[in-house]
Each structure stands twice: as structure tokens, then as C-alpha cells.
Amino acid sequence: MAAAYLLSTADTLILENPAGKVIYHPAGYVRLDWYPAKAPDAQVQALYLAASNTLRQYGLSGILTDHRHMPPLSPELQQWLVDTWTPQAVQACGYRRAAVVQSYNVFGRLATARVVMQLGSLPFTVHYFNNEAEAESWLLDE
To answer: Kind and range of the H or E element at 107?
Structure first.
């Protein structure tokens, strides 16, 4: 099953693999769409790394991540996000804002909340939404 977001002609697909896809949205953010099937951790990491590289390449500070169909991340991936990826994305890429469209899966929501709670000291803001229109509106309202 594919992620629900359909690319417009202005969007640029950065990376797609069995975990999901990374899209540069010309309105001024990176979009992460997740597929519902569990993918190997290395493929999930590849999406996150592509997202941070896109932030740096385009001089962006925000990511809209659609978790609605995302399976819960492994404990190892959660720790990697806390210890490695997010601090590096904040420091080296200017990552400052995350708009999360919440998962339908309660365990996915808990995993995301657990990661975000451990990022408390970073200069980084996360807001949760039930739909992508609200998430995009908040993300672009800087």
C-alpha cells in the first residue's frame, strides 16, 4: 500500500524505499510519508538521512511527517533518533519544526511521544495534528 500523498508537479521526490518517501515541497518544507509495512531499520534510517540532507540542501527548517500509516519504530531506531539523527539534524541542518500527523496506531503514537520527550533540551518544536492541512498550515506559519 502506498503512502496517500500524491506528488504535485512542483514537488520533488528525493527518495522512496519500502519504508516510505521523502519529498521536497516547494512551499518550504520536507515531507516524510510512511508506508504501513514494517521495513528494515536501515531503510527507515535512509529516509531520515535523506530528509536531513534535503533540509540542508534547500535551507529549510521544517518537516511534515505523516505517521498515519507508519508502523511503530524499533527501540533501536527510537534511540538512534534521540541520540544521533535529531541532534545532528538540529545542529548541522537547521531543523527546528516538526509537524506530525498522528498515527492511527496507538503504539506508533506512544513510540513517537517517547522519542519527542527525550529531545527536550534541543531547540526544536514538535506539534501533533490529526490532518495534514492543519500540519502544513502550522509548519508554514513561522
So the answer is: helix 106-117
